[in-house]
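Allow me, if you will, to draw on your knowledge of protein folds for a short while. I have a record of one protein: its chain in single-letter code and its fold written as discrete structure tokens. I should value your view on which stretches of the chain appear to form regular backbone elements. Thank you for your consideration; the sequence and its tokens are set out here:
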Amino acid sequence: MAGGTALMLMMKTGLYRPARLVSLRSVERRYSEIAEEPDGLRIGAMTTLSALGRSPLVRREVPVITGALRTLSNVRVRNVATLGGHLAHADPHMDLPPVLIALGARVAVVDARGGRTIPLEALYAGYLQTTLRKGELIAEVTIPHQGARRASYLKCTARSADDWPALGVAASLTADDGFVREARVVIGAATDTPARLAAAEKVLLGVHVDETVLRRAGEAAAAEANVVGDAHGSAAYKRELVRVYVARAVRAALNAGE
């Protein structure tokens, strides 16, 4: 048990009935730290979302995360919730998984026998399901140096700005004067797991982005995404959101830092 913000709610509803809980609060300080390493930004799984949002390193290296955290739930939750718990919960409505996948993040997981590192996009297997093996815990997240990459995250909520999103879209691009050399487009909340949209990425790759290209990328994303409806919107509504917000997110990424 780290922050326990999601776990306690699930216990109250009877979804989980654990025989015992083990607190992780006393693990080594390394796992609550944010540090710059040769291969990128290393973030311990016990880092609270508030600490992540306040970090000067995060603001300098990956400001898209700082921006996303401003409307991620509320300050009371962010003060308690941890990055590792946020990722391991595997609720598709979480804000950070699409952002971190777009940034190429990797997750280090550990168990009694050792550990392994996997791309974050390989962590998710379905609704509230991960590929973590029995006994494995998320230890750290590494975000590669972004260099000239620009990124954005847009969310659409059916209620207040800090509510669960009906759709979240993250875009990360390497571009020169609007000519895209590399693109990652990832959605969350509208699908059972965070999903990269290869068709939309293909539309963007190797072209100069204009309104026509943005419209084609949005249409490709809407056609590709395996959208599901829920209390935040029907599948048809969310598909239209995908069409519109993918184009907006790509435009926002191209304009990031200007």
